[in-house]
């Protein structure tokens, strides 16, 4: 039996790795990087501590893998939502980013992971500090590019400059995510973000 058959040791190893990362999302989302332990992750994944160390020797390796998994999911969803180049297709790009937010709302563990780790990672000594700093820069560039393209087309209904609008958009989304985690019944995250974006870009309502 070969690895390409979808069975055997390679497939089993990939399945165990997937379980570990899913368990890690929950553990880091609940207690943060420093609060979670390797033994806790192993227990959640249904494997031994030794088995976990076979795949990830250090907790820092787990952190990197989980953040990469989060980025891969977001990238795949953006592609499926047709959020392409924000400079050439700014309206589609904004729709795609809204779709990612909605998708994250269906995955509370991912949202908890982001809120907890991004808060922890403000400390320069945190192993994810550089990752989140660059991620925020990247997302600001995304929104700035989209808003700049819309402003040039006369489709941006705001006197605020695109770069400031980008910062405000991220602040709104992060704030709503935190509120939603405290009160999932009352906080309507998608409708609030959609209302904000539509007030800036009326074309999104069409």
Give the helices and strands, then pairings.
Elements: H1 8-35, H2 38-45, H3 49-55, H4 59-80, H5 90-105, H6 108-120, H7 129-152, H8 162-182, H9 189-200
Helix pairs in contact: 1-2, 1-4, 1-6, 2-3, 4-5, 5-7, 5-9, 6-8, 7-8, 8-9
Note down, in words, how this protein is organized.
This protein has 206 residues and is mainly alpha-helical. It is 73% helix and 0% strand. It has nine helices and no strands. The longest helix is centred in the N-terminal third of the chain and has 28 residues. The N and C termini lie far apart (53 Å). The relative contact order is 0.10. The N terminus is likely disordered.
Quick recap of the structure?
The protein is mainly α and 206 residues long. The protein has helices at 8-35, 38-45, 49-55, 59-80, 90-105, 108-120, 129-152, 162-182, 189-200.
């Amino acid at each position: 039996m070969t690895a390409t058959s979808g069975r055997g040791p390679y497939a089993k190893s990939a399945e165990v790795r997937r379980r570990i990362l899913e368990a890690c999302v929950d553990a880091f989302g609940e207690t943060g990087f420093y609060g979670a332990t390797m033994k806790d992750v192993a227990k959640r994944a249904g494997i031994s501590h030794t088995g976990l160390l076979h795949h990830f020797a250090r907790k820092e390796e787990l952190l990197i893998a989980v953040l990469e998994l989060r980025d891969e999911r977001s990238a795949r969803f953006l592609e499926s939502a047709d959020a392409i180049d924000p400079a050439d297709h700014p309206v589609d790009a904004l729709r795609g980013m809204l779709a990612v937010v909605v998708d994250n709302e269906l995955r509370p563990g991912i949202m908890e992971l982001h809120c907890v780790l991004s808060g922890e990672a403000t400390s320069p000594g945190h192993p994810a500090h550089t990752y989140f700093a660059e991620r925020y820069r990247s997302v600001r560039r995304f929104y700035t590019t989209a808003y700049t393209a819309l402003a040039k087309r006369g489709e941006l209904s705001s006197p605020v400059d695109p770069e400031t609008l980008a910062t405000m958009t991220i602040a709104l989304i992060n704030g709503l995510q935190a509120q939603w985690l405290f009160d999932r019944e009352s906080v309507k995250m998608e409708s609030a973000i959609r209302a904000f974006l539509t007030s800036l870009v009326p074309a999104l309502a069409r």
